[in-house]
Write a structure and sequence with these properties.
Blueprint: E1 10-15, E2 31-38, E3 49-55, E4 66-69, H1 70-87, E5 103-109, E6 112-117, H2 125-138, H3 140-156
Antiparallel strand pairs: 1-2, 2-3, 3-4, 5-6
Length: 159
């Protein structure tokens, strides 16, 4: 399915077969494409680029399509990677985290740091963290494949 080019987000680089590789939803997803392009919120004289997940209901392009600034996509990738690393050893703690010190890391970005912590405000955190760890483990092969590709591409870029 062709990603629309007449809407406010202006695609420049596209993946129009995303429905075939959308993780466990592959072949049965409304996420039909990904694009990198000019952001829909651009003002005159200002150009931001963004990433967009294009969703299609089967009838029309969905308003639930998501558009994120590129740095936020990378911040999410950092959060995923740091969380995955944390859960490799979290099983060693009785509650899968330390309730006295729920902070996992502080990752330096732009002169400050992004805090990464277990969400102790979640009243169901004891159960939810176990479910999260279980799902992360079950998706390990799928996530690992993507992280390997990401590592390879980053290495090719010189990182």
């Amino acid at each position: 399915m062709k990603i629309p080019t007449t809407l406010k987000h202006k695609p420049v680089i596209v993946s129009e077969n995303y429905e075939q590789v959308d993780g466990r939803y592959a072949g049965n997803t409304d996420a039909q494409g990904l694009s990198l392009g000019l952001a829909q919120w651009n003002d005159r004289g200002k150009v931001d680029i963004s990433a967009k997940v294009w969703r299609h209901t089967g009838e029309k392009w969905s308003r639930q399509s998501e558009e994120l600034p590129m740095h936020r996509v990378l911040d999410l990738a950092i959060l995923i990677c740091r969380s995955s690393l944390y859960f490799q050893d979290a099983y060693r703690m009785p509650d899968m985290y330390d309730p006295e010190n729920p902070q996992i890391d502080r990752i330096g970005l732009q002169g400050d740091a992004m805090n990464v912590s277990v969400c102790t405000d979640n009243p169901m955190i004891g159960n939810d963290i176990k479910l999260f760890a279980q799902a992360l483990g079950e998706d390990g092969e799928m996530i690992g494949e993507r992280l390997s590709v990401l590592a390879r591409v980053l290495k090719e870029m010189g990182y």
